[in-house]
Amino acid sequence: MAEVSAQARLEAPAEKVWAQLTDWPAHGEWNATHTNFPKGGPETLEVGATFQENMKLMGFPAEVEWTVEELEPARVLAIRGKGPMAVTVATRYTLTPAGDATEVRIDGEFTGAAVSLMAGRLKDSATAALEESLRKLGALVA
């Protein structure tokens, strides 16, 4: 298993950050690993909703079938997906209001036999992608 996380203070209220985070057509503007949603984002954002995402991890394309596991608007979005080579991917976005700003934390988890072969490289690559994503997200909502 490989676990990664990144956190940043974004100078925008949680509702504005949430709106950008869940603006599926604009996902590629800030998410460093996102390539596209072949069928669009989830039609209805609710627990149990599913959607497909094409991503690029460590320079390799990957298609993930996501399921929304936890949802608290403007606070928490947790998704879990199945990727290539029997890898399971989990991502959790946590938004914590801080006055006029928002503390945003992204936690990621990768599990599966293929992960153990490249856990170190995967952690470095995924952490860098999360940090870049938070920088871009912060610029969009500022």
From TrEMBL:
<dbReference type="InterPro" id="IPR019587">
    <property type="entry name" value="Polyketide_cyclase/dehydratase"/>
</dbReference>
<dbReference type="InterPro" id="IPR023393">
    <property type="entry name" value="START-like_dom_sf"/>
</dbReference>
<protein>
    <submittedName>
        <fullName>Polyketide cyclase</fullName>
    </submittedName>
</protein>
<dbReference type="Pfam" id="PF10604">
    <property type="entry name" value="Polyketide_cyc2"/>
</dbReference>
